[in-house]
Design a protein that fits this description.
Elements lengths: L1 E4 L14 E5 L5 E12 L3 E8 L23 E7 L6 E6 L5 E8 L2 E2 L11 E6 L5 E8 H8 L6 E8 L5 E4 L20 E4 L10
Parallel strand pairs: 1-3, 1-13
Antiparallel strand pairs: 2-3, 3-4, 4-10, 5-6, 5-11, 6-7, 7-8, 9-10, 11-12
């Protein structure tokens, strides 16, 4: 699971990062337009970028920057960050219009709070293309992630998408296994691989 590390501050509107693609759903069926994502850090924040070339079905109560549970009942991108030492993990949802949600888990599907808990100082951004595509991003303070899940070289992570609502299709960047879609398998998440963002030969879309 690649995470690009930038020595320069990252800013919305000037993000120049490789996007990695997901071209099949949970059932290994091809997606007409691959979903794309990227993870990156600068000195202070973790950035999660997600995009898709098709129109999104948005949660009717979602608004840019709004913290909202149950975003996964509509189209959404999801980031999971796990601490293999404690077994704790963090689920972060990012809607195509920059609404978001987060929740701490003590173990698989064992929520620390019923409706989730907003991470302080999160920023979110989105751009909806007139043709129907979208790109969204969020940034999270690294010091808060270090305090919550001991974020660092040992962190395990995965990126997932739910698209095509209400006939939802489930996508995962990493193979998790199982016939029924289940993103909550932190023991199967791969470790983060930190890659300097200015190195040549970075991986592109797959």
């Amino acid at each position: 699971m690649h995470l690009f590390r930038s020595k320069q501050p990252l800013e919305w509107g000037a993000l120049d990062l490789p996007l990695l693609g997901i071209s099949t759903d949970w059932e290994k069926k091809a997606i007409d337009s691959p979903a794309a994502w990227s993870l990156a850090t600068d000195e202070e924040r973790l950035w999660f970028i997600a995009s898709h070339g098709k129109p999104a079905k948005l949660h009717p109560e979602s608004r840019p920057g709004k913290f909202l549970p149950e975003l996964w009942t509509y189209d959404v991108a999801e980031l999971f960050l796990a601490d293999p030492g404690s077994g704790r993990y963090l689920e972060i949802n990012l809607a195509p219009n920059a609404s978001w949600w987060s929740c701490d888990f003590a173990g698989p599907r064992q929520r620390a709070s019923a409706d989730g808990e907003a991470i302080p100082e999160v920023t979110t951004h989105a751009e909806l293309d007139p043709g129907g595509g979208w790109v969204a991003a969020m940034s999270i303070p690294l010091d808060l992630l270090r305090a919550r899940i001991d974020f660092g070289e040992s962190t395990r992570a995965n990126v997932c998408f739910i698209l095509n609502s209400p006939n939802q299709r489930f996508l995962t960047a990493s193979e998790l296994g199982g016939e029924i879609p289940d993103f909550h398998q932190p023991e199967r998440f791969p470790k983060l691989t930190f890659v300097d963002a200015d190195l040549p030969g970075l991986p592109g879309r797959d």
